[in-house]
Amino acid sequence: MEKMIGLPIFLLALIIEIYAFPPPPSLLPPGHVLVSLIKFRLTDLSRENDNAQDASQKGSNDASPTCPKTLSSITDSKNGNFYLFNDDNVWTLNNRTVISGPKKISQVFPNGPDYVNATVTSRDLTVLLEERTLYGYNQDEVTGEFKVAKGFPAKLHELVLFFPVAAFPLSNGSIILLSHFNAFATYNLFDNRPSLLNDKDVFFPGLPKDLASGIPENRVSDDFYMLFTKSQVYKYDNRLGEIVHAQPLSSYLVCK
Ligand SMILES: *[C@@H]1O[C@H](CO)[C@@H](O)[C@H](O)[C@H]1NC(C)=O
Ligand SMILES: *[C@@H]1O[C@H](CO)[C@@H](O)[C@H](O)[C@H]1NC(C)=O
Ligand SMILES: *[C@@H]1O[C@H](CO)[C@@H](O)[C@H](O)[C@H]1NC(C)=O
């Protein structure tokens, strides 16, 4: 009953507030943002009714995760979640929806690096690269927790002369490490050495400039990858060596 009265009063107050005290045009959010702000307030309000005291302490520090605006790297994982990295933070995504974060990298990846330059998941192994150090993890599929994998951390083999800035897995169990320039290495994480060093423009033409990460659409195939740069998401056809779709990270991510 309380809710039924409270809601129209709140809406009325909101409308009066917006019309009586319009924010300067430069501060006025676009229509859809305004609508989602109102929706957010409405869901927040119903919780406030349930527990007014709790809600009054919550303020803007709501349980919903903050949406990342850019990324430095992103990888999938054994249980199907994605982990998005930016600076020293990591967010967890499930089917494009941000379900937690930001957390410090080492809160999710024990004894993990302070930041990452590249990340990749190949079979059961998730690897974070900080400069030339590889931090390897196995994920518990049920709890989602990461444990340091046997043999890690490890140093990148000295035959790889560059500092990797991006990575993606191949379905045969090797990974591709990319340099900032033209070189790439096909790398085997299990014997920790490269099997091929070559020119990425020859083997993987049409990769986006400043690629950060690649995640296969289907783990058993190298045909299609989702490629991520700092703020864009692409679909790459590896058979054609072409980008076939592009969208901003902000529209790819679903944030509640
Ligand atoms: C992922 O989300 C889309 C819509 O955003 C939905 O159609 C699809 O079924 C979801 N997939 C899974 C595995 O939940
Ligand atoms: C690795 O990441 C750090 C932090 O973002 C950055 O300062 C450094 O230049 C990166 N290394 C390379 C090789 O890009
Ligand atoms: C996977 O394929 C790549 C390129 O086709 C090759 O260089 C690499 O050695 C292969 N890895 C394994 C583990 O067979």
TrEMBL record:
Q: Which InterPro entries did the record assign?
A: Hemopexin-like_dom_sf, Hemopexin-like_repeat
**Signal peptide annotation:** 1-20
Alphabetic keyword roster: Signal
Q: Which SUPFAM superfamilies does UniProt cross-reference here?
A: Hemopexin-like domain
Which residue windows does the record flag with biased composition (Polar residues)? 52-71
Location of the region described as Disordered in the Swiss-Prot/TrEMBL record: 50-71
- Spans of the Hemopexin repeats are 68-112
Which Pfam families does the record match to this protein?
Hemopexin (PF00045)
Q: What is this protein called?
A: Uncharacterized protein
- The record lists the organism as Acrobeloides nanus
Tell me the lineage of the source organism. Answer: Eukaryota, Metazoa, Ecdysozoa, Nematoda, Chromadorea
